Amino acid sequence: MKNAELNQRRQQATPRGVGVMCGFYAERAENATLWDVEGNQVIDFAAGIAVLNTGHRHPKVLAAIEQQLQAFTHTAYQIVPYESYVSLAERINQRAPIDGPCKTAFFTTGAEAVENAVKIARAHTGRPGIITFGGGFHGRTYMTMALTGKVAPYKLGFGPFPGSVFHGQYPNALHGVSTQDAMNSLDRIFKADIDPKQVAAIVLEPVQGEGGFNVAPAEFIQALRTLCDEHGILLVADEVQTGFARTGKLFAMEHYDSKPDLITMAKSLAGGMPLSAVAGRAEVMDAPAPGGLGGTYAGNPLAVAAAHAVMDVIDEEQLCQRAQRLGHHLVEVLQQARASCPAIAEIRAQGSMVAVEFNDPASGQPSAEFTRQVQQKALQEGLLLLSCGVHGNVIRFLYPLTIPEEQFTKALGILSRALAE
After folding, report:
1. How many CA atoms lie within 13 A of 115 on its CB side?
2. pLDDT tens string 118-132
């Protein structure tokens, strides 16, 4: 089987709307390595878009899934419940940075978690309005498309979107947006678009994912918490991409003193199995009536078993600490590369949630073209990198936190050469 032949078959069989980045097809994977159908080997710094913090096919995750496979694969938790769902909720309730008693409900995808957070917030407050931020990404369903602050490719041709959703500015020092500017944009929304007493929730990513790994300043989170408390608005942290040790803490909100009312999570929660969750203050989570939350596959037992194993691996292998160490090393390499790569405009990092932004050195404008060249050069040497950012001029690094040291060093060598060329 050849990649080119599979590519032709894909184009005939599947719609162009399902965009595919790579021209090669996976055959097997192990930890931070992918092999394609032609036997080529790639170091995976994409990890299924931040899904594999514990690597491809971690032995503990595999064993947990296999054990559950022998028991049962599906009952629909809302029909016949099972202990593993309850105990996973208990584990997350203990660890989530939420004030007071916490409760957790499980779903299937990140977008589903965000949709349910909106449902819960509206049920609790009795208000319709939701505020999110430019550059944010929250999913591809209709509600989450409305929340997402990036038009291409997510919103093209799909409108109109659900109403009562408003976008503020997200702080971004490189692009001249201060915390004060961001808070002023919310004030404008309250004056021009919606009374704050009609706003159910403010939803933000503590580190924007698709938006370019922009890290929320501490004073911004504090100001949002104060604003929410003043007007009875819920603060919702979308931790779908930041969760489960990526930032050097189990949740990115642990880097801040202020706590959210609700947290959404998915991606690395179940090490490659489809599972998402909403955790939050117990009285907020209890707002929807019985039957108001759920889904046929929500909290699938195989995925729940995998998530228990993921939580074990993060603790046993000290992946939060390792995320800090690997991220620090990567930042050092990127800073060294600055001398020979004038296109580097900014390096941003929180733990192993690291990104580098590129501008055209001549014009100072964002350079998606340079970003593509770095990706292509790295891939030629066997390193898979992902881009992001509103202008497509950012490379983000999402290697498994379990990557062997030797392989990580090799990958950084490839990266350095791609930047220098």
Report:
1. 20
2. 999 999 999 999 999
